[in-house]
Amino acid sequence: xxxxxxxxxxxxxxxxxxxxxxxxxxxxxxxxxxxxxxxxxxxxxxxxxxxxxxxxxxxxxxxxxxxxxxxxxxxxxxxxxxxxxxxxxxxxxxxxxxxxxxxxxxxxxxxxxxxxxxxxxxxxxxxxxxxxxxxxxxxxxxxxxxxxxxxxxxxxxxxxxxxxxxxxxxxxxxxxxxxxxxxxxxxxxxxxxxxxxxxxxxxxxxxxxxxxxxxxxxxxxxxxxxxxxxxxxxxxxxxxxxxxxxxxxxxxxxxxxxxxxxxxxxxxxxxxxxxxxxxxxxxxxxxxxxxxxxxxxxxxxxxxxxxxxxxxxxxxxxxxxxxxxxxxxxxxxxxxxxxxxxxxxxxxxxxxxxxxxxxxxxxxxxxxxxxxxxxxxxxxxxxxxxxxxxxxxxxxx
Length: 397
Ligand code: HEM
Known about the structure:
Layout: H1 10-14, H2 17-26, E1 29-32, E2 37-40, H3 43-50, E3 56-57, H4 86-95, H5 100-119, E4 126-128, H6 129-134, H7 136-146, H8 153-163, H9 174-200, H10 206-212, H11 222-253, H12 255-263, H13 268-279, E5 284-289, E6 293-295, E7 298-300, E8 305-309, H14 310-313, H15 348-365, E9 368-371, E10 377-378, E11 387-389, E12 391-395
Parallel strand pairs: 2-8
Antiparallel strand pairs: 1-2, 3-5, 4-12, 5-8, 6-7, 9-12, 10-11
Helix pairs in contact: 5-7, 5-15, 7-11, 8-9, 11-12, 11-15, 13-15
The structure holds protoporphyrin IX containing FE.
Keywords: Heme, Iron, Metal-binding, Monooxygenase, Oxidoreductase
Organism: Archangium minus
């Protein structure tokens, strides 16, 4: 047992912000548990690392997605774990298919789904908002993006439940590994079906755009395509669902804020931006340094696993006045919650749209959210912080 701070300690997960503040003050670059990873807590240092992808490499963490028991997890082939020049080429190819027109094309469909999800929430009775509300709009967004039918939504949810645990599965845990093997085979086969169908008959959608995309005469290979679709599955569901759950918790904790947004729905985008800064889902981004480096006055040996704490950077008093206060009047938008530099979130505009639409529908129907039966539970991840359980009771006006 080491005396080091353990970031996965349930008490830390329940409220990591005082711990991040202490790190910023006294140990802005230091080693913590699990595993003696290096954490970087101050905004200036986090930005320095994100601006230098050759030294703070994403490719270096690819082996996290290539454990000995799973050598063919497609996320390991995605641009999330690539550095330039491979990342640059892939990003250019998918960028063209991921434009602003795609976001507006999806909005009416997302509103329809959000309306149905909100309409099916029980009135005056406790329900876990994570399962009953937050996950379904992101699933619909993903289904629409990739062209999977609505009948598959419950299956997509089961994939997202399994993949969320990927990096915490131990080599001896063969049962959970089997679940991953099954889910990957099933996901792959559905993705292959869509790819085949769009090859035969292209449509006005993302997958057809990806199949058409060319840069300097080169298109995406089958491995690139599968890696990108897996990246969308992992990147699009948990993030947006966690943000929606945090928004619902904020409404329960601050009923006057909920009433204000109901009265002035045009404030919802500002609310979302401040939620992203104050309580955003992305907490840490992993990198590996390709050389020995000095950051924040501390030497980090070559080949270390480094966690850039963007949730701490978003509350750094050196950059943001009174950072713990939730304040919708701050100048925005804040983009750091979506990363910075070459890996900046490709879905930032889409995420803002889907969360806005889901909240507009929720606020149009319900006037108050009060605590439900059972306790609130947080997940246990270094990368993504979100609610695993959020019992709430929704009340009509
Ligand atoms: C609130 C919701 C979201 C948050 C907070 C978020 C956050 C992030 C962050 C911090 C990164 C940078 C990762 C890194 O530097 O290693 C990222 C990358 C990415 N995100 Fe998001 N994301 C969200 C929603 C989405 C959605 C809805 C999609 C797609 C539909 C998406 C697709 C991606 C992709 C493809 C990348 C990788 C970009 C690259 O490697 O070049 N994200 N996201």
